[in-house]
Amino acid sequence: MTREEVLRRAAVAREKPAAFGPDLDLAAFHVDQLARETAERAARERQMREAALGVGVDLAAGQRAGTFLQVDQSVIARRVGAGYDGRIDVLPTLEALEVPWVAERLWSIVAPDTDKYTAAAALHPTGGFCLRVRPGERLEEPVQACLLIAETALSQNIHNVVVVEEGATVHVITGCTVNRAVGGLHIGVSEYFVGKNASLTFTMIHRWAPGLHVRPRTTVVVGEGGTYVSNYLLLGEVASLQMYPLTLLRGRGARARFQAVLCGLGDSVVDIGSRVVHEGEGSASETISRAIGADRSKIWARGQLVARTNSCRARLECRGMLVSPAASIIAIPELEAHGVPQAELSHEAAISPIAEEEVAYLMARGLSREEALAAITRGFLNVDQLGLPPAIARSVDEVLAATPAGAL
Amino acid sequence: MDRPVLEVCDLSVSVGERPVLKGVSLTVRPGEVHVLLGPNGGGKTTLLMAVMGMPGYRVTDGRIFYFGEDVTALPADGRVRKGIALSFQHPPAVRGVTVGTLVGQIVKRRRSAGPSLEELSRPLGTDALLDRDLNVGLSGGEVKRSELLQLLALDPALALFDEPESGVDLDSIAVVGAGMRRLLDRDGAGSAKAALIVTHTGHILNEVPADHGHVLVRGEIVCRGAPDTLFADIRAHGYEGCLTCRRCLSTLAKSPTEPAARAAGGESVARQ
Q1: B77·A380 Cβ contact <8 A
Q2: N or C of chain B: less Cβ packing under 10 Å?
Q3: pLDDT tens per residue across span A279-295
Q4: Could you say which of A310, A336, A355 is where a domain stops?
Q5: Options 2.120.10.30, 1.25.40.340, 1.20.1440.20, 3.40.50.300; CATH of B6-271
Q6: pTM for this predicted structure
Q7: Cα separation, A96 vs A128, whole angstroms
Q8: Is residue A54 within 8 Å of A209, Cβ to Cβ?
Q9: Domain limits for position A362
Q10: Contact B95 A375 (CB under 8 A)
């Protein structure tokens, strides 16, 4: 799609509400950073480093294949780790618009006129990163990216492109959080391309603030024999968060696995789903989400499996646990098979309480009620299965240790 | 004489609105192993649950003392910290919490030095269970060994066992028995540790001999005595025979701190 075509389609959609989630008035947010030096100053601040660490991004760590850090609309850090030169490319999106491997993919699998949020990202782009892992490169260390909002009422309009070439393997850890900002909007358009026999593991941790609105718009294409693994953790309160990423398993034998851990805290309105379309012969996916509804939070947990080939298999598991009488969880699993009688799709959705019998049992092993609740909640969320880096695991533990007891 | 580890004084307990225990008294001294016998529904599990302080077992009358301290109102976790622990007959499944995680946590917070998780687990043959979720899909024997592993890590002064041999094959009973002896230091040169064991079959007593027996029928202790004798009498006369004896027991002294005296009386009555 040409640049002109992108802008033309975006302009038409600038007022178009999203299919799901609360509709936002984008006029309430600004894209021009009011104080340019804010980001540079913030970059030096210890709090910012701690905020990044809280979402799994260790800016001081040497053992990273690559690092990208954006504060508000400014790129603060962009580096390729020692030993990774020539194996990966890490570029700020706004500087990479003419780079062929970026240009040919921008807006190729996310439509700019999807809704007013994609339109805003097309009309007023403010950053993001592009990552390419070259063919056959199996990265030993993860690539980390942190997108941080420090200025209140800012609209951070990110566009990311990740390309994992044939036979390459990478783990990308992305942390999105705030430092000082009390309100704002984060729009994140992401287009990921997993090549033949390539593997992309994407761990994303969101830890926003009560006044933040978040609208990611993601599409992933997985080629023949490729694997895409998505770990998503929502750990903090957020004003509203709505996303329904689409994964297209195009290649023969393409695989995907999605694991989401959603902590609904405070007055959060969270509408999250995962849509997987199975096109490649023998493609398969597994989607597992765990949601805890605390305080006055509302969570919509969606999932849609679409079969377009006879030989695909897919499973959707969606479990919710309410720990507050003022919280809501709405689980909406959907299965679609179109002219493919041999396709095998299944789903399992459940909303259940914390079993007092289990709490009592753990207390009979010396755990306090709060510790027992945290252990059960953590077990319910399946966090151990995610294989998270230690810093992220600690961060999850802190949130869980504080959540259920307070909510009850 | 040593201060009793456990004194249950005129304890009445309701489960929901249903009264289950009615004025039960029992004293366990350091180093003693007591066995609790009785028909299904008689209140044996309720007594253990109440001593452990489990929610849902409401004490409506009476007191529970642990080394002279009134623990009647103390929650279960507080009682564990003082040194009471219960091996459940049917522990709940807890998804996402592994046996190893829980026992590791218990070992970590232990005040005094003691065996590691591996040292505790190996003799019980529970290494393969450490990565399993608590009581999820475990066989009867595995559940019992997992419970025992947890108790070994807790190292209580008073261990409560609810049917430790139920659903367990004979080989596993030997393993469980060895673990219980280890827990109670029964293979060593004497121990101050005490236990209260609920058993239906009495098989576990071949592994862990008991010093005192009590028969609990319809929420009341109706007989006390030497465990072997009680078993022999129950085999001969059934628990209905114990109820007959109860009339005779009512004439005996009701001192909860004198189990030995009542044991003698119980024996003579039970033989009638």
Answers
A1: no
A2: N
A3: 999 999 999 999 999 99
A4: A355
A5: 3.40.50.300
A6: 0.79
A7: 10
A8: no
A9: 356-408
A10: no
